[in-house]
């Protein structure tokens, strides 16, 4: 059994045909408890925490088979709200909620919200989209980096959605997709290029803040066929060219 660590993913070769993809995320001090630093309804905290792990797994081309939630609080009512939020996000991602399992803290009283999420997916080895950028490629971003109170927790059309991810995964001119988190577009773009054996030349006058945190994966970057940039701009909204891998 071969195990590889790439970016925030763990890839485990199960057999000659399939690879398991594992990603996780955690969230603490955000919620409605007395000790929380940032007051947000728990259902939204759970939605965006599980979103990060889901995005990591599906962008690698894998199908989610299990989601675990480690709620560091009581079931009633923090755990109930967490489960509700996770199920809402799974529905948005078109994932059956039967994959969900988890645990809560019933022995001790807690004064701040804590959630740990792990997502596990399976993918055929010939369909893994990790370190799969073919030769020289352009890097694009879709979605706007946002974090914390900048996000409309009910609906935010500037955040990249799951339907866009699924369309990108099927597009022949899209080689690899990476969700962007707190380290920002520039960091993830340089890492993507390096992991594919390339250097990145950033474009001048980029129309998005490449150093800003994207919080719960509010945007993605993708390595694409540089000759098809104009076509991709027609097919997808809010596409920004970040640079070229050389």
UniProtKB/TrEMBL annotation:
Keywords: Kinase, Transferase
Ranges annotated as spanning the membrane: none
GO MF annotation list: kinase activity
InterPro entries from the UniProt entry: PurM-like_N, PurM-like_N_sf
Gene3D superfamilies (alphabetical): PurM-like, N-terminal domain (3.30.1330.10)
This enzyme's EC code(s): 2.7.1.-
Pfam families in the cross-refs: AIRS
Broadest EC class assigned to this enzyme: transferase
All residue ranges annotated as the PurM-like N-terminal domain in the record: 10-123
Name the UniProt record assigns to this protein: Alpha-ribazole kinase
Organism: Clostridium pasteurianum DSM 525 = ATCC 6013
Taxon lineage: Bacteria, Bacillati, Bacillota, Clostridia, Eubacteriales
């Amino acid at each position: 059994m071969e195990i590889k660590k790439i970016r925030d993913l763990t890839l485990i070769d199960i057999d000659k045909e399939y690879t398991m993809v594992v990603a996780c995320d955690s969230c603490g001090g955000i919620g409605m408890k007395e000790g929380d630093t940032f007051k947000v309804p728990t259902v939204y905290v759970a939605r965006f925490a599980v979103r990060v792990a889901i995005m990591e797994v599906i962008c690698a081309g894998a199908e989610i088979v299990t989601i675990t939630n480690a709620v560091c609080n009581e079931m009633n009512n923090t755990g109930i709200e967490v489960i509700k939020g996770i199920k809402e996000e799974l529905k948005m991602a078109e994932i059956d909620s039967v994959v969900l399992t988890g645990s809560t803290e019933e022995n001790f009283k807690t004064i701040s919200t804590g959630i740990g999420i792990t997502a596990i997916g399976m993918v055929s080895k010939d369909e893994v989209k990790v370190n799969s950028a073919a030769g020289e490629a352009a890097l694009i971003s879709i979605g706007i980096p946002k974090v914390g109170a900048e996000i409309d927790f009910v609906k935010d059309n500037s955040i990249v959605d799951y339907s866009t991810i699924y369309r990108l995964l099927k597009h022949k001119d899209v080689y690899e997709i990476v969700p962007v988190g707190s380290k920002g577009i520039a960091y993830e773009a340089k890492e993507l290029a390096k992991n594919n054996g390339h250097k990145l030349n950033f474009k001048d006058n980029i129309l998005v803040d490449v150093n800003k945190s994207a919080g719960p994966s509010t945007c993605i970057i993708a390595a694409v066929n540089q000759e098809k940039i104009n076509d991709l701009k027609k097919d997808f909204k809010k596409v920004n060219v970040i640079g070229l891998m050389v």
